[in-house]
Inverse folding.
C-alpha cells in the first residue's frame, strides 16, 4: 500500500477509528491492532515477504531475551553476531547476491578464468534495508546495555513492523520508539492536527513536486544523447528536487501518520538544500540513516578520535557503505565516494562543524555569502545525484560528458514552465518555514481560521490539479 | 478527541459540499446534457490521418471529429454519443494499416502520455469495463483523470474533449521520420506487434452501428509516403488487404489510397498529408463519394 493511494485513504481513517474508539481500553489491544494493520499494510504489496519480517522479529526478540540472561562476554558476542548475520544475511541475499556474483565473474574473467554461476531472479522485498537496520539497532543497543531487552513480544513486533515507517523510514532507534509501545498513548489534539498538516505537506511534496519533476527527469535521462548540456543540467537539478520531494515527502507522511496514533518519530530531513556546506547537508539529509551509520559504524571504528589517516579512512568507509546501502550498483558506491571527497576538505581543515547555526537567522533573504555557499553546495550535490540516478556508471559518465558539450550555454530544449513555477512556490514556502520541523508547521498559525483553512484547501486542490503521473516512491527500492 | 473529530468533519464537509456541487454540475454537463452538434451530412472520424487529410470546409456539409492517435474503441464510443442526437448521411472513417496494430492496445496503460490523453478525452463516453479482458488499462490513472474532470472545477465544455478541434494542418513538409513512425506503429522494441483484436472488433462494431442507424460508411486510407509504405511489415499489408476484401464483400466502400505516389511537398511527414495534400485528397474523396 502506498501513501498516495485510495487504499491508504480508506485504510488510515479506519485504523485511526479502531485504534482510538474500539481498542482504546487496552494498550495491548492497541498494539495488536498496530501489528495486524502493519502486516496488512506490508502484505498489500506481497504477503510472502511478511514471513521475512516475522522471522527477523522472532530472531531479534529471542536474542534480546538471551542477552538479558547471558553475562559471559564471548557468549554475548556470539548472540550479537548471530543477529547481525541473520539480518545482514537476508539483506545480502535479497539485495546483493547478484551484484557480488556478477562482479566475481567479471573479476575472474579479467584474470583469464571463466567461472560458472547463474544470476538468480530475486525480487527485492520492499523496505528490507530499513527494517533490517531498525532491528539491528535494537540488538546492538541491548548488547551494549543501552536498552533493556523487550519482554513484550507484541510491543516488539509492533516496533519492528510499525506501518508508517516500515518501508522507507525514518529508521528508528529502539531506544526512542520501543518504549513508546510500552506506554499508554493519550490523544493529543495539537499533535494530531500537526500530524495532519505534515501529511498534507508530505503529499504535496510527493505528488506535486516529485512526480512532476519525475516526468521531466525520466525523459531526459532516458534520451540524454539527444539533449544539449543545459537540458541535461536541468534534468539533474530536477532529479535533485524529485528525490527530495519523494523521500522527504514520504518521511513527512510517516511522521504525521505516527502522530495521529500518538507516536513521535525522529526528524529525517531538515531543509537539506539550504545547507551552506556538504557537512551541513549530511546533517540535514536522511538524518536517521546518517546518524545510524555514525552511531553503529563510524564511532565503533574509532570515529574522529584517531589521527588524520583514521578520520579519512572512517569517513570514506561510512560514505561508501552508505552508498552501497542504497543499492547493489557501482553508481551508488561512486555517489557515496563523491560525497566523501566533498566532505574531506572540511574534515581536514576542521571546518565540518562550522555551519551548525540557523540558516540566515532573522533574515528574509540569505546574505550574498550564504547564497553563494548554498548554491555551491547544491551544485556539487546535483553532480553526485547524476550517479545516483543513472542506470550504470557508463550512463552517468556519458551524461556528464554530454553536459560539457559545446552547446552547454544554449537554451534548454525542454521548457517545463509548469514544473518550474511549482518549484518556485515550493522553495519559497520551504525557505520561509526553514526553522520549523516541516515547512508549513506554523504556516498561517496566527491567521484568521477561514484564511488558514483556505490555504489548506488550496494545497489539497493543487495536489489533485497538478498531480503528475503516479510514480513509485524512489526509496522503496532500497 | 471530540474537538479533533469535529474539526476534521467540518473541514471535510466543506470539501464534500464543494465536490457535490461541482460533481452534480459536471455530471449533468458531461453525461446527461444533449450534445450540441450542428447537423452535418458527412462526418469524418478516425485518427490524425483523417484529421490531417480531410478538410471539411471543402465539402458542402461536413465535420471532422478525428483526433490524433485515436483507436477504434474511442471512435466507437464517440459515434455512439454523437448518433444519439445527430445522424449524418455518411461516415468517413480512417482505415489504415496501423489502425489494426497492437500498438493501439497499449494506449491505455504502458504509454503514459497516450493513456493520460485517451482518458482525458474519453471520460464522459468511456466503457472501459467492456474491454478490460482484452486490453490492459491503467485504472488508477483513468479514475484520477475522471475525478479531476468531474470534481475539481465546474465546467460546461466536457464534450469538446472527445469531439476534438477538428481539421488542422500546416504547409511544411519533412518526411525524414519514416523509420520512427514505422517503429512506433508496428514494432514493440524489435518484434512486430500482433494485430489488435480489440481494434478489429470495434471497427466491426462501428460498421454495425452505421448499418443500424442507416449511415453510409466509407473506409478511407489516406496516402502515406513510399518510404513509410515500403517499411510496413508484410503481415500487416496482407491482413489489411484481407480485411479490405472482406469489407468489399459486405458492400462496404473502401477507398484505399495508401500506396499512391504524391510529390513530397504534399506530405507533412512520412505518414500524414499537409494542407496542400489535404486539398488534393479531399477532392479525391469527394469524387469518390459522388461516383
Amino acid at each position: 500500500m502506498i501513501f498516495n493511494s485510495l487504499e491508504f485513504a480508506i485504510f488510515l481513517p479506519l485504523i485511526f477509528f479502531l485504534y482510538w474508539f474500539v481498542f482504546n481500553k487496552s494498550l495491548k489491544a492497541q498494539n495488536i491492532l498496530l501489528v495486524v494493520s502493519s502486516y496488512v499494510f506490508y502484505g498489500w504489496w506481497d504477503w510472502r515477504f511478511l514471513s521475512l519480517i516475522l522471522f527477523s522479529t522472532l530472531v531479534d526478540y529471542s536474542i534480546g531475551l538471551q542477552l538479558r540472561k547471558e553475562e559471559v562476554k564471548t557468549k554475548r558476542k556470539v548472540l550479537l553476531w548471530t543477529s547481525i548475520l541473520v539480518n545482514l544475511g537476508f539483506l545480502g541475499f535479497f539485495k546483493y547476491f547478484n551484484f557480488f556474483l556478477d562482479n566475481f565473474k567479471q573479476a575472474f574473467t579479467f584474470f583469464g578464468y571463466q567461472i560458472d554461476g547463474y544470476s538468480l531472479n530475486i525480487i527485492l522485498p520492499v523496505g528490507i534495508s530499513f527494517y533490517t537496520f531498525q532491528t539491528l539497532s535494537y540488538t546492538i543497543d541491548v548488547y551494549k546495555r543501552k536498552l533493556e531487552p523487550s519482554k513484550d513480544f507484541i510491543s516488539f513486533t509492533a516496533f519492528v513492523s510499525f506501518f508508517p515507517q516500515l518501508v522507507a523510514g525514518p529508521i528508528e532507534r529502539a531506544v526512542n520508539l520501543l518504549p513508546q509501545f510500552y506506554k499508554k498513548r493519550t490523544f493529543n489534539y495539537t499533535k494530531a492536527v500537526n500530524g495532519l498538516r505534515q501529511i498534507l505537506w508530505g503529499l504535496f511534496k510527493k505528488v506535486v513536486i516529485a512526480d512532476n519533476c519525475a516526468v521531466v527527469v525520466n525523459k531526459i535521462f532516458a534520451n540524454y544523447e539527444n539533449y544539449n548540456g543545459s537540458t541535461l543540467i536541468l534534468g539533474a537539478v530536477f532529479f535533485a528536487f524529485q528525490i527530495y520531494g519523494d523521500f522527504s515527502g514520504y518521511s513527512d507522511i510517516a511522521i504525521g501518520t505516527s502522530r495521529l496514533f500518538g507516536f513521535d518519530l525522529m526528524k529525517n530531513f531538515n531543509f537539506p538544500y539550504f545547507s551552506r556546506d556538504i557537512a551541513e547537508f549530511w546533517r540535514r539529509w536522511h538524518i536517521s540513516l546518517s546518524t545510524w551509520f555514525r552511531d553503529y559504524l563510524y564511532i565503533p571504528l574509532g570515529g574522529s578520535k584517531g589521527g588524520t589517516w583514521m578520520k579519512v579512512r572512517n569517513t570514506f568507509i561510512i560514505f561508501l557503505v552508505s552508498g552501497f546501502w542504497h543499492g547493489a550498483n557501482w553508481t551508488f558506491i561512486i555517489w557515496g565516494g563523491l560525497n566523501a571527497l566533498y566532505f574531506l576538505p572540511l574534515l581536514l581543515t576542521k571546518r565540518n562543524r562550522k555551519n551548525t547555526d540557523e540558516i540566515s537567522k532573522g533574515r528574509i533573504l540569505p546574505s550574498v555569502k550564504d547564497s553563494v555557499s548554498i548554491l555551491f553546495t547544491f551544485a556539487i550535490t546535483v553532480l553526485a545525484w547524476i550517479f545516483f540516478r543513472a542506470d550504470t556508471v557508463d550512463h552517468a559518465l556519458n551524461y556528464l560528458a554530454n553536459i560539457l558539450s559545446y552547446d552547454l550555454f544554449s537554451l534548454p530544449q525542454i521548457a517545463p514552465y509548469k514544473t518550474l513555477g511549482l518549484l518556485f512556490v515550493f522553495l519559497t514556502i520551504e525557505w520561509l518555514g526553514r526553522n520549523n520541523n516541516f515547512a508549513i508547521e506554523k504556516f498561517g498559525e496566527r491567521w484568521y481560521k477561514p484564511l488558514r483553512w483556505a490555504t489548506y484547501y488550496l494545497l489539497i486542490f493543487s495536489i489533485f490539479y497538478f498531480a503528475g503521473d503516479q510514480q513509485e516512491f524512489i526509496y522503496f527500492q532500497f | 478527541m471530540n474537538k479533533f473529530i469535529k474539526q476534521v468533519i467540518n473541514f471535510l464537509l466543506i470539501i464534500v459540499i464543494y465536490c457535490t456541487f461541482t460533481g452534480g454540475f459536471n455530471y449533468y454537463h458531461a453525461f446527461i446534457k444533449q450534445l450540441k452538434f450542428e447537423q452535418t451530412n458527412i462526418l469524418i472520424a478516425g485518427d490524425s490521418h483523417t484529421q490531417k487529410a480531410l478538410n471539411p470546409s471543402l465539402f458542402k456539409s461536413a465535420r471532422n471529429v478525428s483526433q490524433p492517435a485515436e483507436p477504434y474503441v474511442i471512435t466507437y464510443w464517440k459515434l455512439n454519443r454523437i448518433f444519439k442526437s445527430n445522424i449524418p448521411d455518411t461516415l468517413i472513417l480512417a482505415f489504415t494499416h496501423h489502425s489494426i496494430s497492437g500498438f493501439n492496445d497499449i494506449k491505455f496503460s504502458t504509454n503514459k502520455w497516450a493513456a493520460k490523453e485517451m482518458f482525458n478525452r474519453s471520460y464522459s463516453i468511456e466503457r472501459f469495463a467492456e474491454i478490460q479482458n482484452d486490453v490492459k488499462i491503467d485504472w488508477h490513472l483513468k479514475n484520477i483523470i475522471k475525478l479531476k474532470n468531474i470534481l475539481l472545477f465546474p465546467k460546461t465544455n466536457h464534450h469538446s474533449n472527445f469531439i476534438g478541434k477538428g481539421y488542422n494542418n500546416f504547409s511544411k513538409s519533412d518526411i525524414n521520420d519514416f523509420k520512427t513512425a514505422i517503429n512506433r506503429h508496428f514494432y514493440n522494441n524489435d518484434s512486430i506487434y500482433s494485430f489488435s483484436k480489440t481494434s478489429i472488433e470495434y471497427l466491426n462494431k462501428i460498421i454495425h452501428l452505421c448499418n443500424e442507424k442507416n449511415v453510409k460508411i466509407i473506409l478511407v486510407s489516406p496516402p502515406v509516403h513510399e518510404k513509410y509504405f515500403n517499411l510496413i511489415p508484410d503481415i500487416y499489408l496482407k491482413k489489411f488487404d484481407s480485411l479490405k476484401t472482406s469489407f468489399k464483400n459486405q458492400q462496404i466502400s473502401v477507398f484505399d489510397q495508401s500506396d499512391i505516389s504524391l510529390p513530397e511537398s504534399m506530405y507533412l511527414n512520412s505518414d500524414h498529408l499537409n494542407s496542400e495534400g489535404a486539398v488534393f485528397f479531399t477532392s479525391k474523396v469527394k469524387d469518390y463519394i459522388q461516383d
